[in-house]
């Protein structure tokens, strides 16, 4: 004798992978959505630049870095420069 299979419930909906932004506010000219960040994984360089004021920032990157990491590094550097001036 075999047991009767129980009824399975509905499948749970899968989570969507939300894409992270790659456009941010410029720390130099304070315009919104003007900074573009790119991560070049082959050269291991991260680049952030403003379209309007042409301010740019580049840093070394690794495989786990994403555009928000490049942007936050730039923000930290700008804040450190402001603190050094004062």
UniProtKB/TrEMBL annotation:
Could you state one GO cellular component term attached to this entry? Answer: transcription elongation factor complex
Give me any GO biological process, just one. Answer: transcription elongation by RNA polymerase II
Q: Which UniProt keywords apply?
A: Metal-binding, Nucleus, Transcription, Transcription regulation, Zinc, Zinc-finger
Q: What Gene Ontology terms describe what this protein does at the molecular function level?
A: RNA polymerase II complex binding; zinc ion binding
Source organism's superkingdom?
Eukaryota
Extract the InterPro entries matched here.
Elf1 (IPR007808), T_Elf1_sf (IPR038567)
A Pfam family of this chain: Zn_ribbon_Elf1
Protein's cellular compartments: Nucleus
What the record says about family reads: Belongs to the ELOF1 family.
Q: What does this protein do?
A: Transcription elongation factor implicated in the maintenance of proper chromatin structure in actively transcribed regions.
- Write the protein's name: Transcription elongation factor 1 homolog
Task: State the organism of origin.
Answer: Spraguea lophii (strain 42_110) (Microsporidian parasite)
């Amino acid at each position: 004798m075999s047991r009767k299979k129980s009824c399975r419930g509905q499948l749970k909906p899968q989570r969507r992978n939300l894409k992270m932004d790659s456009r941010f506010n410029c720390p130099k000219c304070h315009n919104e959505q003007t900074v573009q960040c790119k991560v070049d994984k082959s050269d291991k360089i991260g680049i952030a630049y403003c379209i309007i004021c042409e301010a740019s920032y580049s840093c070394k990157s690794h495989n786990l870095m994403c555009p928000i990491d490049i942007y936050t590094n730039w923000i930290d550097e700008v804040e450190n420069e402001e603190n050094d001036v004062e």
